[in-house]
Amino acid sequence: MLIIQLNEAGWVNGRGYRKQVAADTAVLAATGTFVQVVEMAPGETIPDHSHQTSREFYVVLNGRCHLIVNGESHHLEPGDMLLMEPGDIHRLHNDGDELFRLLVFKTNATGEDTFWADEEEFTTEARRTRR
C-alpha cells in the first residue's frame, strides 16, 4: 500500500487552474498513465483545448463547474464522472462561489499532447484527431 498526500510545493499553475500529480507512471507501473488533482478558483476558466492521444477520466470532488465539450454544455457537481476522448475540444469554467476540485485519471499520455485553441497548431491537430 502507498499513502499519497498532496503538498503545497507540488502545485503547478496552468491556464486558469493549478494541478498536482498525485501518482505518476512509476507509481502506477503503467506507461502513459497518471493521476492528478486540478483546482479552479471561482470565476476561473480553462480555455478550449484538446488532447491528441490522451484519455481523461474526471471525477468531480468539490464545487460546481460549467463544461463545454464539442459545443455541448454540461454542469458538473460533486460525484459526477465523465471521460474525455482524444480530440474532444473542451473548456471548463468555475461559475460557482467555491473552489472547484477535479480528480483526473489520464491514460495514453505521450509527452505534451495538449493543444490550446489560441495556438496555431490547434486547428491542424484538432482536425486530425476528430477523424
> What sort of overall outline do the alpha carbons produce when their principal axes are compared?
globular
Total domains, how many? Answer: 1
Give the tally of β-strands. Answer: 11
CATH topology: Jelly Rolls
Sequence of strands across the biggest β-sheet: 1-2-3-10-5-8
Q: Provide the gyration radius in Å.
A: 15 Å
Low-confidence stretches: none
Q: How much strand content do the residues show? A: over 45%
Estimated structural class: mainly beta
CATH domain class: Mainly Beta
Helix content: under 10%
CA-to-CA gap between the ends? 41 Å
Q: What's the SSE pattern?
A: EEHEEEEEEEEEH
How many individual helices? 2
CATH superfamily (homologous) name: Jelly Rolls
- The overall pLDDT, averaged over residues, is 92
Describe the structure concisely for a colleague.
The chain is mainly beta. The protein is 9% helix and 45% strand. The protein contains two helices and eleven strands, in the order E-E-H-E-E-E-E-E-E-E-E-E-H.
